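Technical note accompanying the year-one report. For the benefit of new consortium partners, we illustrate the data format agreed upon in the data management plan: each record pairs a sequence with a structure-token string. No post-processing was applied to the example shown here.
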Amino acid sequence: MAQTLLMPKATAIWLVDNTALSFDQIAQFCKLHPLEVKAIADGEAAQGIKGLDPISTGQLSRDEIARAEANPNHKLKLSEPKVRVPESKRRGPRYTPVSKRQDRPNAILWLVRNHPELKDAQISRLVGTTKSTIEQIRERTHWNSANLAPMDPVTLGLCSQIDLDMEVEKASKGRPLPTVAELGATLQSAQETERLTPSYEREEEKEKEIDADAVFRKLSSLRSAPKDEDDDQY
């Protein structure tokens, strides 16, 4: 896999500011036009972009820069990376080990129940099965339907959690938002909750009413007592 320069324009800015390389050398290394490098040096282009040091990123050595500064005809070369990233292989049908193929129907049943938004093609990519098998499990016409138990395909080792999350996210992008009926019971609105008074406040109000009645009765009895005593004297 051919190595490519990271952030060529930011690297060009750093080389213009920190080296004596010619515009042609920087343009050749960063895959830019010499006039664009000149515009960067004049401050007419790439304003607001912070320069990237290619030495700190391991893409260029100080010796290579020194050789290019001494010889205007020298072309800069990328340094060999310290870590080789393997080239990603073209993805084909997922291979499932023989020891785990018997678990695929259980994984399909789990996906159908817990993620109904997934399409058959997505389930097929996750567990390495066919659309006909998915339809049989979904319609309960599979030859072993009575013995199937839903099992997480990640736990079974048929797919990774990252792959499952990516497929679920793709399937959920065009899905409409759930309705109130689908969500079931919801929280009461603020207007409804404002009308409700706490139970302890109602008890306090009730106690206050009882205490007020008792006070009035006591006052009335005190007022009537002197009149009765006056009547007894006459």
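Partners are asked to follow this layout when depositing records. The chain has a mean pLDDT of 78.
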